[in-house]
Amino acid sequence: MCNIDHFESVGLYRIRSKSRIKYLLIIFCIFMIICLNGTVIRGASIDDVPHMTYFLVTVDVETPSPYNMGDFPLPQQINAKIRKEGVGISRMMDIADEYNVLITFFFNVYEYPAFSKDAIKEVVQTISRRGHDVQLHTHPLLIDEKGRPYMYEYGLNEQIDIVKQGRELLREWTGKYPLAHRAGTYAANDNTLLALIENGIFLDSSYRYKYPLCHLREEEFRTNALTQKGLLLEVPVTVFYGDESTSLFGYKLPGHKKLKKFDIDSCDLDLLKIVTTKLYENKMNTITLFMHSWSFVRKWSANPEERVSDTDDINDFREILRFVRNHPGIQPISTSDFWEKWKNGGIVVEKKDFVPETVMSVGLITYARRCLRIHRGNYLYWVAGLVGCGFALAILIFSIRFHKSRKN
């Protein structure tokens, strides 16, 4: 006789086996779906992790040369106004505060021989009290008996002393040592980096690609991507190529490709947005917006009636902060906070470098100036040459007319 209990137990076993197979198939399908979507058991693949680009707003604080701006002393820049409109450092912080953005002020503390330490300290402490970032900027001209303006002109021990003096002044005035540095006019060399490390500063932002006064070797640094050089991290000044063109009598002239700095003074808002977007899309870790403490001033003069504010730069600054603050993949950050993220392993060096290229329409005079390579350093030679040519042409015309009159 057949045991009914036996058949029931066999049937129950088959049912349970089918259920197990069903559940195994479901689990297998889920696993395949996960794999096909680019993820693994340990988590998302690197390519699918949302990229974050860090946007550093940096301001070099210094007295401009008379050629650039006229006499606009550093101590006056903190609360400067033109016709009741704020155009100084405080105005920059006011706008940044609206968008919860911290500015990094690279501060040239070495101007105290001209204005006194108390005057410089007051500006530094005003920035620090408002919670913005104060870091070291080295223009050693005024503290050097020989009047050497560039860091690369000093030996290693001299540069160590320069950095140490600036570091100690900032600690005395803010209660903490600076974490980052930028050389004035980007004029750093290998000794500058060694001097920084000797003084416990491990983040530098002096490298500007192909800039004549920057003596950091191009083969050792990347253009816009981070470079780790031993203990030191180099966050470069962001640059891009602008293909500048113009029209003459309806005809478009050939473009002139120019390497440009990403700054508030030479870029309009549309250009700032285009370059920012391209850098983000190509997964650059950092974008460094460059400014000066006098960027909101078009013209400064001892006579208040002759002063002119740069309303375009003020508006562009506000709008680019609004743009990056509303962008889900871009995070404004101070240099101090960026260093903390780097130190804690939250940021890694990019695998590739990238330099954006843009098309720009410029005026005919600007186009001619670019093609002839006329700039601040040589424009007086061009003026002298043109005046000389004009004078020679006038003599030639006078001589021809004189000889014709004698024949008649």
- What is the assigned CATH homologous superfamily of the largest domain? Glycoside hydrolase/deacetylase
Largest sheet: 9 strands, mixed
What is the percentage of strand-forming residues?
15-25%
Assembly state: single chain
Q: What is the CATH class designation of the largest domain?
A: Alpha Beta
What secondary-structure arrangement, pairings included, does this model have?
Layout (H helix, E strand, L loop, with lengths): L3 H33 L2 E2 L2 E2 L8 E9 L4 H4 L11 E2 L2 E2 L2 H10 L5 E5 L3 H4 L1 H13 L3 E6 L17 H19 L5 E4 L6 H9 L4 E2 L22 E3 L2 E3 L4 E7 L1 E2 L2 E2 L3 E6 L7 H13 L4 E7 L4 E3 L8 E2 L1 H16 L3 E3 L2 H9 L13 E5 L2 H8 L7 H29 L1
Parallel strand pairs: 3-6, 3-16, 3-19, 6-7, 7-8, 8-9, 9-11, 12-20
Antiparallel strand pairs: 1-2, 4-5, 10-11, 12-15, 13-14, 17-18
Helix pairs in contact: 6-7, 8-9
